[in-house]
């Protein structure tokens, strides 16, 4: 049986609005599926919106203080020469043949809120993969990459889906820079999700689902 191929697409955006704070992809959300998929025998390609070096949120790598320690998969990734080389020299999504993959996965990190929504290449890739029966998946802020995706009939990819997402309220309580977000997940998703459930106020569940 041929090896299954999975395309992981990350953000290339490295700055949190005009705050001067660094952001990017959240390390664990790339590292954990990267190793899990490889362990399962899949061929994994890591691409990014612009290509080149993938920016990581410094709070997820231990470079800045965080209340969440770097997990084992993150430490493994940072110490893995092959993995770090993959992240440093990623192809852009314009350079990959999405049709050759069996699935795509969009990890989160706040950078995704800037360069994934409205990106025509990503939108077309996601919609095409879905229409051909391939797996489309995302975690945390990764579903921002689904916002503009449409099926071949012109309808939104998740128009009749149910979804859960973070609301504005916990962002205001957790961070001092909510106004820097390009958009908040809940109002953006409300435009296309049939059943939308916001996360509990005050929670910081790093999980969003579309079913």
Mean pLDDT: 83
Shape by Cα distribution: globular
Question: Regarding CATH, which class?
Answer: Alpha Beta
Beta content comes to 5-15%
CATH fold-level assignment: Rossmann fold
Distance between the termini: 29 Å
According to CATH, the homologous superfamily is Class I glutamine amidotransferase (GATase) domain
- Cα Rg: 16 Å
Sketch the topology as an H/E string, one letter per element: EHEHHHEHHEEHHEE
Q: What's the helix count?
A: 8
Computed structural class = alpha/beta
Features:
211 residues; alpha/beta; Rossmann fold; three-stranded mixed sheet; 8 helices; 7 strands; 29% helix; globular; disordered C terminus
Write the layout of secondary structure elements.
Layout: E1 5-10, H1 27-39, E2 43-48, H2 58-61, H3 72-78, H4 81-88, E3 103-106, H5 112-115, H6 120-131, E4 135-138, E5 162-165, H7 168-174, H8 185-190, E6 195-198, E7 209-210
Parallel strand pairs: 1-2, 1-3, 3-4, 5-6
Antiparallel strand pairs: 5-7
Helix pairs in contact: 1-3
